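Researcher: Sequence recovery benchmark, item below. Answer with residues only.
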């Protein structure tokens, strides 16, 4: 889906536990029509600048115990791998599973509808077997595509991931057009990431997806009610030159609805559109997003530093094995999907660890890629590996 994870991707694994403390504090706003209000208020918690008490911090840590334990374990594992084994192949934090390449829309930036490396879908049983293999090495999964709701068995797969395989975090990335036909999804996911690039359905602009928009907004209202909290829904938008004003409207609308807002720029052949940094309207939008995240007036995916790096194309070092991508047939890329190198298959080779070891032997260690692939998961991996404590402090603010 889109430039995939379009992390995370497009869309942000920060919507998972790493941002849950911040997101849970945000008040819920009633559903309203796009453009009917502006975000000219702030939640009460944003006005209270007192530091939380020790008791409140301890209670928060207890509630987030599995998440805290996971992050400390990965921190020490990665330190051991980098400084003793001298490798940039780090342990997986979450896996992105592409369950299909099919999609019912045609986004201009999408890499999945006609991928460079194609794979066939597995049967339901084999896909659940694949989920079990993934669960051995991580408790967090992102299910994406293509459009995952086009799979006839997607409800069964999501339910298997949550209740049979017992993933702690199950995120589904979707364009939102078919959610009402797959209600079982909403009873199983821990979070939903909905791709939306505009609030105005402009018949003269196909990029605004005028035919799909009313249905997406209708299904968002359905999902908001079914999930019980708007903070479990992330609105993921891709910024291009044509929709800068629309993204600003989306930012305000997400504040009103209580949805988490996530944004990244479109990637064309792995490269960002550098014209955006010369656009004063784009720079003003980025300033607004960062300031809202810093002040805490609404839930926004990432931290001020990760957003700055992501949207202003700052330098970072990617550690792609932190968020490995698995294709519909179980193929795993090494070190990343954009380099189009498949190092193994989970059903055949048994584990990501085996596949990464094989990939490193064949292709070498992870190359020092810089200035490309500005996806949230890639940027997050840089700060997670190189400044773990600073990142943790930023998320807790």
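Model:
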């Amino acid at each position: 889906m889109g430039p995939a994870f379009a992390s995370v991707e497009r869309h942000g694994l920060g919507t998972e536990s790493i941002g849950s403390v911040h997101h849970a504090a945000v008040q819920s706003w009633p559903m309203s029509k796009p453009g009917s209000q502006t975000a000219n208020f702030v939640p009460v918690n944003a006005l209270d600048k007192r530091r939380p008490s020790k008791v409140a911090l301890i209670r928060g840590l207890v509630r987030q115990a599995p998440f805290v334990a996971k992050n400390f374990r990965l921190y020490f594992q990665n330190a051991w791998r980098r400084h003793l084994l001298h490798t940039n192949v780090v342990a997986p934090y979450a896996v992105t599973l592409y369950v299909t390449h099919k999609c019912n829309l045609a986004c201009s930036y999408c890499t999945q509808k006609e991928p460079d490396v194609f794979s066939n879908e597995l049967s339901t049983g084999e896909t659940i077997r694949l989920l079990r293999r993934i669960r051995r090495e991580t408790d967090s999964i992102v299910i994406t595509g293509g459009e995952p709701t086009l799979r006839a068995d997607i409800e069964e797969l999501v339910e298997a991931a949550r209740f049979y395989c017992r993933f702690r975090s199950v995120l589904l990335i979707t364009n939102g057009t078919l959610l009402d036909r797959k209600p079982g999804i909403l009873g199983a996911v821990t979070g939903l990431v909905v791709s939306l690039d505009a609030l105005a359905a402009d018949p003269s602009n196909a990029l605004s997806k005028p035919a799909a928009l009313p249905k997406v907004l209708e299904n968002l209202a359905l999902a908001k009610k079914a999930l019980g909290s708007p903070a479990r829904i992330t609105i993921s938008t891709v910024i291009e030159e044509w929709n800068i004003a629309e993204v600003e409207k989306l930012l305000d609308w997400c504040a009103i609805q209580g949805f988490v807002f996530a944004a990244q720029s479109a990637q064309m052949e792995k490269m960002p559109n550098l014209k955006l940094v010369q656009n004063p309207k784009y720079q003003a939008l980025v300033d607004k997003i960062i300031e809202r995240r810093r002040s805490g007036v609404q839930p926004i995916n990432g931290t001020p530093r990760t957003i700055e790096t992501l949207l202003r194309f700052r330098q970072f070092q990617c550690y792609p094995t932190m968020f490995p991508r698995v294709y519909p047939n179980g193929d795993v890329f090494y070190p990343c999907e954009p380099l189009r190198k498949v190092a193994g298959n989970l059903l055949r080779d048994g584990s990501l660890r085996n596949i990464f070891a094989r990939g490193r032997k064949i292709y070498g260690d992870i190359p020092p890629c810089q200035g490309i692939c500005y996806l949230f998961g890639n940027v997050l991996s840089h700060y997670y590996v190189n400044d773990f404590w600073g990142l943790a402090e930023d998320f807790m603010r």
